[in-house]
Each structure stands twice: as structure tokens, then as C-alpha cells.
Amino acid sequence: MLAGKGHKAGMNDELFRMMELYQQGFNCSQILLLLGLENLGRSSPDLIRAMTGLGGGLGFSGKICGALTGGVCLLGLYAGRGAPEEKEHDRFLLLIDELVQWFEGEAGRLYGGINCADILGEELTYRAVTPKCGTLIGSTYNKVKEILVSNGINPAGEEK
Questions:
Q1: What whole-number distance in Å separates Cα of residue 11 and Cα of residue 14?
Q2: How far apart are CA 55 and CA 60, in angstroms?
Q3: Which Pfam families does this UniProt record tie to the protein (predicted)?
Q4: pTM of the prediction?
């Protein structure tokens, strides 16, 4: 949530920002990492560039949904290891497992699977983020934040 705003205003701001990023041509995994970086007050064009390959289910091959792989990467941004002197969060793999199980339940219930081809069907050929993607991006982002908070990690990056 954005600092100094109420919960509902923060969520509306995030949805608006997701739409802006979508209109700028970013894919699902890129949008998730951009939101996370912005929430931390950072930018990393190299990281966002690397996330390009996850959109459309691994380069629009229709494999694992980029909202899930992007969500896992977003957890890594907050709780993973980035330098030799760092340690990943002691529950890092459990954080990922929680997200994967949640996503399998959500996407499985709504679309019959976690692959982009399951979710988008014929729409995958258009190589574009769709309203289905927007729903999954938003719910995945919210689930990642929930997982972080429940494990003592502030999504704004500030010490508690």
C-alpha cells in the first residue's frame, strides 16, 4: 500500500498503476516486479528486462503463467539472497510454496490449470496481457503482500 493513504485508496492506486504498466506494454511478470520495486522506492531496468522472458508462460510458449513466476520472483526480491554476505529469509521456500499452492487453487478453479495456455486459450496467440491476466496479476500481487506481512516482512521495505 502506498504510504499515507487509506487501504482502499492504496489498492485503487495499485490497480491504476497496473493498468498504466499494462498500457505501456509490460507483461504480467514485469508488472509484478515493477510494483514491488516501486513500493521499495527502487528501480532496476535490468531486472525488468530479465523478467520479459517470463511473460506469456515462458516467452509466450503457454507454459507456467507469468503471474505465478513473477510472483515467485517478487518474493525473491523481498526475501531472497542478492549478495555473498546476505542470507535468504529462513522461510523463503515456504513463502514460495504458499504462493504456488494458492495460485494452483485459484487458477485451477478459474481456468483449469496454471499454464498460460490453460488460462488464455486462443488469446495466447495475441501475445498481450488480457483482462484474465489483469485479474491474476492483481490477486497474485495482493497474495504476495499478504504472505510477506504474515512472515514479518514489510512490503514497503521499512523496518517494523
A1: 5
A2: 6
A3: C_GCAxxG_C_C
A4: 0.89
Task: State the CB neighbour count (10 A cutoff) for residue 70.
Answer: 28
Cα–Cα distance list, 117 to 7, 27, 79, 86 (Å): 34, 15, 30, 37
| DSSP states along the chain | --TTS-HHHHHHHHHHHHHHHHHTT--HHHHHHHHHHHHTT---HHHHHHHGGGHHHHTTSS-B-HHHHHHHHHHHHHHS--STT----TTHHHHHHHHHHHHHHHHHHHHSSSBHHHHHGGGGGG-S--HHHHHHHHHHHHHHHHHHHHTT--TT----
Q: Count of alpha carbons within 13 Å of 12, Cβ hemisphere only?
A: 5
> Alpha-carbon Rg of the chain, whole angstroms?
15
Q: What is the pLDDT of residues 132-147, one digit of tens each?
A: 888 899 999 999 999 9
Is 140:65 a contact under the CB 8 Å cutoff? no
Angle value at C-alpha 37, between 31 and 41, nearest 5 degrees: 140
